Amino acid sequence: MSVSVDEWLKQQGTTMRRGVDTSQMFVDKEQSESYAKYRMKYCDQVYQFIVDYCRETSPDLDLCVDCGCGPGQSTLGFAKYFKKVVGVDISEVQISNAPKHDNVEFKVGSAEKLPFIESGSVDLWSSAQSFNYMPEKE
């Protein structure tokens, strides 16, 4: 028997739902630094699996866009595979905690509007642990 998202959330004891206003999350520097320090990192096999799949249709791997990147944990994992990686996050504080890397650029912005990305130029659009924060319709 299937249940609605709202009912499932209620059963879990939470009201957290995609589409909530997340623009005020991670505005505190200390909170953002803790997130950068303690958020789980992915093993190389995860990136390799994704990259192998991408190479089936786009062998050059020119551009990866990682939306909701926070301080760049998953963004940096793609850097050794793609010519350019762009990490995008709505939180300026999160972006300020992202480490520098030669072929990685970090931008403050929303996943729904990427005016700095040319249409049709993206080989991989990634969203590691942030998709649930994005609005349902936009």
Report the CATH C-level class. Alpha Beta
Average pLDDT rating = 82
Biggest sheet, open or closed, and with what strands and sense? 4 strands, parallel
Helix content: 25-40%
Q: Which architecture per CATH?
A: 3-Layer(aba) Sandwich
**Mind telling me the C-alpha Rg?**
16 Å
Total strands: the figure is 4
Order of helices and strands: HHHEHEHEE
Strand-pairing-aware structural class: alpha/beta
Q: Provide the CATH superfamily.
A: Vaccinia Virus protein VP39
Proportion of strand residues: 5-15%
Strand order of the largest sheet: 3-2-1-4
Helical segment count:
5
Distance between the termini: 30 Å
Q: Which residues sit in consecutive blocks of at least 5 with pLDDT less than 50?
A: none
Give the tally of structural domains.
Answer: 1
GO molecular function: methyltransferase activity
Protein name: Methyltransferase domain-containing protein
GO biological process, one term: methylation
Pfam families: Methyltransf_25
